[in-house]
Design goal:
- It is a single chain.
- The protein is α/β, with parallel strands linked by helices and 767 residues long.
- Among the domains are: 3-152 and 274-287, Jelly Rolls, CATH 2.60.120.10; 156-252, Arc Repressor Mutant, subunit A.
- The chain starts with a helix and ends with a strand.
């Protein structure tokens, strides 16, 4: 056992092994396994993995594993107790998804760097390095929770209640706590409390209380010389026999035997590194260690002046408007007009068409539907009609089969008569699947899809029909889902929804959890490449959150997220539909200028950073693609003009993921991001010599950041029209202009960046 871990928690353990044969003994620990050199076979709950050098895997608590590494391998193993994690996390409600074998595209460089630093400190351990060792271990835990934490989505009220209950248990575990007392404290009857507790904690009250007591008893057992009887009483076990029985169930040993084995192990100090391990680690550092410069980066992009490949303008394909009825709102139409003036979208996506409110009780009154569709066409938007999408607890597939057949047939005839075949054939009909991972739901969806497809195609043979806004999670096997479960359906296109949530089957129920992976969207789109099809693939909905009350939607971060995501995704699919058009179509619980809505525009029609990001990206309209990397996109035009789109995206830290995303405070947004300045040098080579105008359009704090400007007005909710106009004038991007000379066909640009800054550089040669 590592000496440093004794300072943090005696139930955790760090090991560095040259030949590992491990079997998980305590299902209450979370185990981080990093194979630094060699190969190993790993089995987690019966699923086998072949580990290779540099692989990272986290085995969550309640999961069993066995690992067998080949000789001359090097394995870093960190068993993290729930006691240690509970210092910062609600450990009962989180898990980690960190598996480089299943998810190789994720960036694990920061974890590798920290592990190497920890081992360095442990190998050359002395009394003066203990605080540094402790800080590095905590830093590793913070990095793990920042990038790989999956936290259960719960309602705020329920989350607060269960936190209060578990906090009380942790504070009073040594008392004679009873189910009756706890249920009274929570203002619930005993039966409901038991059900509520088990639903949220995955075990009953008695077992949870016993586990908390056992964690503290274990600390006393290995850290003190107290008699076993005293340890049991001090930690709430009022029967020594009961304590011994529970201990033996968990550790397959009596408390006294465990203490003797621990003391013997401690005396032997098996942790000490031998020369073979030290040499192996030194070789690893020389061969593999990534040296990361945190402050300055150098990028060189060579221009191919003969390249005439138009950029795929997927970012402007789909405008997600909202439920169809909202289009009748004059304020919304004004904002849609503003969006189209600044960003030319192709399709206007609406849903909730077949409601009694729009079609009347007889479902054959089309006046309002006509007004809605006419409004889209007037705005130069091609209708994208989304059917079966849940809107106000309504979806089309809930109608009786015969009624739906008559409704859709009559609707298609009306479209044909009013708009004509040539116009309607350009439209899209999308039939949404609301639960793609539920077999029974998919079966019902296929029947509904086939019926609707057949009726529409009979009357409108050239219209494009597809589906189904399939929600992409890291548990959906896309290829088998499309090729097998949907094999009986004919799709003219496929559409998917991308939001960073995972979907786990927990106790036979779907459990959606937030995913901390900054590259989740990019990695999920790579999975779409597995689909064997020549049909168009659209991401009809995408964002960083589904919450309509997440204040990060209003922050500078959201703009940087959009730029990063569009660079990652624009050339991978046939169209993208950012979620959502404007805050006007959503109702959240916040009041004031900004409400945490998903829109590009605020309720007042002001540009949020998300809108500025889309506008900067839209400068590439009509350009030719040159190249891209993770942070930049380079394009050119016909006449010696070049564009460099870039960002300094900063991922939210673990504090954000520990908060209820729909109940953030305006004053805490800045706490979710590390303020790190970055400098980059960009060189364009192979461009013609001459005089160029260099314009930089940037969004950063104080420029293009409406949320920051509102903060300077103390987040006042009741603002005058003059205040709104002031904020509109102040919330514009920063623009700089200089004239530069290009010699030797090279142009160098130095730019300093701050957290979540994003920009486009326009370089145009003077005639």
């Amino acid at each position: 056992m590592s000496k440093i871990i004794q300072y943090l928690d005696n139930q955790s353990d760090i090991k560095l092994l040259s030949y590992a044969n491990l079997k998980k003994e305590d299902i209450r620990t979370t185990d981080l396994l990093f194979l630094m050199r060699g190969k190993a076979s790993l089995t987690i709950d019966g699923k086998g993995y072949a580990m290779k050098a540099d692989d990272f895997v986290v085995v969550n608590k309640h999961e069993n594993y066995e690992l067998l590494a080949e000789k001359e391998s090097l394995l870093f193993s960190f068993s993290i107790s729930s006691f240690l994690l509970s210092q910062a996390l609600e450990v009962e409600r989180i898990s980690f998804y960190c598996n480089s074998i299943e998810n190789p595209n994720k960036n694990y460089a920061s974890l590798r760097q920290l592990v190497s630093e920890i081992i360095d400190l442990l190998i050359y351990e002395n009394d003066k390095t203990n605080f540094l060792q402790m800080s590095k271990v905590y830093q590793l835990l913070n990095e793990l929770s920042s990038l790989f934490l999956e936290q259960t989505m719960e309602t705020f009220e329920e989350d607060q209640r269960i936190q209060k209950i578990t906090r009380t248990i942790k504070e009073r575990y040594y008392e004679n706590l009873t189910l009756t007392e706890m249920s009274e404290m929570a203002h619930m009857d005993i039966a409901y409390f038991s059900k509520f507790f088990k639903k949220n904690m995955a075990r009953n009250f008695k077992d949870y209380l016993s586990d908390v007591r056992m964690q503290h008893a274990m600390q006393d057992l290995i850290e003190t010389e107290k008699p076993i009887t005293q340890i049991a009483i001090d930690n709430g076990f009022f029967s020594v026999n009961g304590f011994n029985k529970k201990f033996k169930e968990l550790y397959q040993s009596t408390p006294s035997s465990y203490r003797k084995k621990y003391q013997a192990r401690k005396a032997v100090s098996t942790y000490l590194f031998n020369d073979e391990i030290k040499q192996s680690f030194q070789q690893y550092k020389e061969e593999k260690l990534e040296v990361i410069s945190a402050h300055k980066s150098y990028y060189q992009f060579e221009i191919n002046r003969a390249e005439k490949t138009p950029i795929r303008e997927t970012w402007g394909k789909i405008l997600n408007i909202g439920a169809a009825g909202i289009v009748l709102n004059n304020s919304l139409r004004q904002q849609l007009s503003m969006l189209q003036q600044n960003l030319t979208f192709k399709y206007g996506r609406i849903w909730g068409i077949f409601s009694a409110k729009l079609l009347g009780e007889t479902f054959d009154q089309y006046d309002m539907i006509d007004e809605i569709i006419d409004s889209l066409i007037h705005l130069s938007l091609t209708p994208w009609l989304s059917l079966n999408k849940i809107s106000h607890s309504f979806k089309e597939s809930e109608y009786p089969k015969e009624k739906w057949q008559a409704m859709i047939q009559q609707f298609c005839l009306h479209l044909l008569n009013r708009y004509g075949t040539q116009t309607v054939s350009k439209w899209k009909i999308e039939i949404v699947a609301n639960a793609p991972e539920d077999h029974d739901s998919v079966s019902r969806y296929c029947s509904f899809y086939q019926m609707t497809y057949a009726i529409c195609k009979q009357l409108l043979p050239n219209i494009s029909i597809g589906g189904g806004t399939f929600v992409m999670t890291n548990r959906l096997e896309v290829r088998s889902f499309i090729n097998e479960e949907l094999s009986d359906c004919t799709f003219d296109f496929y559409s998917f929804a991308l939001f960073p949530y995972s979907n786990r089957l927990v106790r036979e129920k779907r459990n959606y959890q937030r995913v901390t992976d900054p590259d989740f969207l990019k990695n999920q789109v790579q999975a779409l490449k597995q689909i064997d099809t020549n049909k168009p693939i659209y991401i009809s909905e995408w964002s960083n959150t589904v919450s309509r009350s997440n204040l990060l939607n209003d922050s500078l971060y959201k703009g940087a997220f959009i730029i990063k995501s569009l660079i990652d995704l624009f050339d991978q699919v046939d169209g993208l539909g950012y979620w959502l058009s404007t805050d006007l179509v959503q109702k959240g619980h916040y009041q004031g200028l900004l409400t945490g809505g998903n829109g590009l525009l605020s309720k007042n029609g002001l540009f949020k950073p998300a809108m500025h990001a889309m506008k900067l990206f839209d400068q590439l309209h009509g350009a030719y693609f040159q190249c891209k990397d993770e942070k930049h996109l380079v394009c050119s035009s016909e006449e010696n003009e070049y564009f460099i789109l870039g960002h300094h995206y900063t991922h939210p830290n673990s504090l954000y993921y520990l908060k209820d995303e729909s109940n953030l405070k305006v004053t805490e947004i800045s706490q979710f991001f590390e303020e790190v300045e970055h400098e980059e040098e960009i060189v364009l080579s192979n461009i013609s010599n001459g005089t160029y105008e260099l314009r930089i359009f940037s969004c950063l704090k104080d420029h293009g950041d409406l949320f920051n400007q509102w903060s300077k007005l103390n987040f006042l909710q009741e603002l005058r029209d003059s205040d709104i106009k002031y904020l509109e004038a102040k919330s514009t991007h920063l623009q700089t202009l200089e004239v530069v000379e290009v010699r030797q066909n090279r142009l160098g640009i130095n730019k300093k960046l701050v957290t979540n800054e994003f920009y486009v550089i326009n370089i145009k040669k003077r005639r």
